[in-house]
Amino acid sequence: MSCCAPCKQQAAMAGLLDVVWPSDVEAYAVRVDVTMRATHAAVMACGGLATEERKAWSDFYDAWRKFFGEVAGSWVFGGGGKNEEIKRYESQLAQWQGILRAKCMIPGPVPKPRQEEDRAATDDVIGTVKWVAFAVGVAAVAWGVRSVLR
After folding, report:
1. Radius of gyration over every alpha carbon of the chain, rounded to an integer in angstroms
2. Smallest Cα–Cα separation from 94: which of 74, 69, 116, 73?
C-alpha cells in the first residue's frame, strides 16, 4: 500500500476526485487477465462450442491480449481511460462467461465489474450531498427568520 492510498480512497469516496495511478490500472488489468486466461484455456478445451462461438471468443480474447500488452508501460496520463476500458472488457467477460458456462466448464466465479462498486460509492456521495443541501437550506431559513425578527 502506498503512502497516498488513504488520501486516494478518501478523495474517491467523497466523489470529488478519482485519481487513477498507473500501478492501479496495471493491477486491475492483471486481475482481469488472470480470469481471461483461465476462461480462454477452458474454451480451447471445450468440445461443446460451435466453430462460430469459438471464433467470436478468440477475437474477443485476441483484442484483450493486444490491449493488455499496451496497459503496462511508462505512461502517466490517460489512466482513467485505460481503467474504463478494462471495466468494459471485464463486463464483456462476465457476459461471455454467462454464455460459455452453459456449454463449457469455466473455472472460477463470474467476474463482477467495478461499475457496480462505483455505483455504490456514487449513491453514498449523492446521499451526503442531499443532507448537506438540506442543512444549508435550514441554515438559510434560520438566518432569514433571524433577520426578520431583528
Report:
1. 23
2. 116
Please report which confidence band the pLDDT of residue 128 belongs to, taking 50, 70 and 90 as the band edges.
low
Q: How far is CA 86 from the centre of its chain?
A: 7
H-type helices in 46-109, by residue range? Answer: 51-71, 79-100
Indicate the DSSP class of residue 20.
Answer: -
20 in Cβ contact with 77 (< 8 Å): no
CA-CA distance, 103 to 22, in Å (whole number)? 37
CB 86 within 8 Å of CB 30 = no
For residues 104 and 42, give the distance between their C-alpha atoms in angstroms, rounded to a whole number. Answer: 7
Q: Which three cell numbers stand for residue 82?
A: 485505460
Report the candidate in 43, 18, 35 with the shortest Cα–Cα distance to residue 111: 35
Give dist(CA 37, CA 58) in Å, integer.
11
Give the domain ranges of the chain. 5-113
Dump pLDDT digits (tens) for 76-91: 666 778 888 999 999 9
Percent of the chain with pLDDT over 90: 36
